[in-house]
Amino acid sequence: MNIGIIGAGTMGIGIAQVAATNGCKVWVYDANAKQVETATVGLEKTLTKLVDKQKISAEKMTEILANISIATELKDFKDCELIIEAIIENKEIKTKVFTELENYVSESCILSSNTSSISITSLGAELKKPERFIGIHFFNPAPLMPLVEVIPSLLTEKTLAEKIYNLMKEWGKTPVIAKDIPGFIVNRIARPYYGEGLRIVEENIATPEQVDDAMKTLGNFKMGPFELMDLIGVDVNFAVTTTVYKDYFYDPKYKPSLLQQRMSEAKLHGRKTGKGFYDYREGTEKPVAQKDDALYQQIFLRIISMLINEAVEAKRLGVANDEDLELAMQKGVNYPKGLLSWGKEIGYAKISETLQSLYEEYQEERYRQSPLLRKL
Predict the structure, then answer these.
(1) What is the pLDDT of residues 303-357, one digit of tens each?
(2) What's the burial of 10, exposed, middle or buried (CB within 10 Å: 0-12/13-18/19+)?
(3) Residue from 85, 149, 227, 310 carrying the catalytic annotation
(4) Which pLDDT value is given to residue 243?
(5) Is the entire prediction scored with pTM above 0.85?
(6) CB 352 within 8 A of CB 369
(7) What is the average per-residue pLDDT within 150-173?
(8) Out of 187, 237, 305, 352, which one is annotated catalytic?
């Protein structure tokens, strides 16, 4: 296939690498021409490391690089069969790009967005042919993370989701089909991992390192919520939470954190700025968590109960089938278990009791239970 990628940031060039590795001819465009050059140089370095580690052959590296071309304008996408947009999370900017693209591409060209939180229906509705538009959401880093959320809009042609699902499988990915709701599967269900961790710290119940340590030691998570926010970017995580909150008509369950807003304002964005919830500057030691078994149990049960409740609600609303809900959280954010099976293991009655206790303590809708939870 001929594939067009709009945006040469980490995500865009990562998707280009995936497509090119699978034999597609790829054209990469970025409004900032220098960014494309920087990205391709970076890709060459990445591939060289893979050759050195004997993950790919030198011939394969040559083939991948030969499959990628630089597009200098959107007109260069005229022969593309599929275009994946991976630019800034701004609806107006994305819409402007897609409406211009329609002037150059063929009638059969599929247009898609890698957005993590903007409504696919709202983006596609502005097009002359909204039926050819779909969400294809990769996870960062795209070459390594197996999950891809395939999101048809209300206007997407009925067979297109299956077509993209099969293409992603051909590319060696683990695709899941999701409803077009704010946050889709992963970014919706994962919100409490960050949100409840932030709430616990804001209330001086525990420190970030204690929350992280509790989730890693008791839940076997690879990274705690604060380490993960620093990796993703505190500002990026805050922006996604804000979008989900707004798009759910300000449902208290998704209310953003004031602490996270202040961190974003202070440009304490995590690893990329050298400092976030932790200090990554040279010579700085990471603080050691003061262990407290009772506190750790409280932290773990509170956060896992919120996550399981969110997964149960997604099941109730038919956001995806059970298998895809479980797959999405394990393959998209590396959760050690699917949340529905985790709920069974802990006991749904225990999860319900924990949430009821939090609801009585705080008197906040944030802790309301899914109607399905008590029935499981």
Answers:
(1) 999 999 999 999 999 999 999 999 999 999 999 999 999 999 999 999 999 999 9
(2) middle
(3) 149
(4) 87
(5) yes
(6) yes
(7) 98
(8) 187
Show Cβ contacts of residue 246 under 8 Å, excluding neighbours closer than 6 positions. none
| Geometric angle at alpha carbon 370, from 369 and 375, rounded to 5° | 105
Q: Is 204 marked active-site?
A: no
Query: 116 catalytic, yes or no?
Result: yes
287 three-class SS:
coil
Q: Check 137, 264, 269, 305 and give the catalytic one.
A: 137
Q: Per-residue pLDDT tens for 105-122?
A: 999 999 999 998 889 999
Name the residue among 83, 72, 71, 137 with its Cα closest to residue 109. Answer: 83
For residues 210 and 288, the answer to whether their CB atoms sit within 8 Å is no
**Which residues is 110 bridged to in the sheet?**
82
Q: Please give the Cα distance from 26 to 48 (Å, whole number).
A: 19
Per-residue pLDDT tens digits for 41-64: 999 999 999 999 999 999 999 999
Active-site pick, 116, 305, 352, 370:
116
Told to judge if 269 belongs to the known catalytic residues of this protein, a careful annotator would answer no
The residue type of 254 is: Y
Average pLDDT over residues 128-142: 95
Strand partners, 29: 6
Q: Which of the 8 DSSP states describes residue 275?
A: B
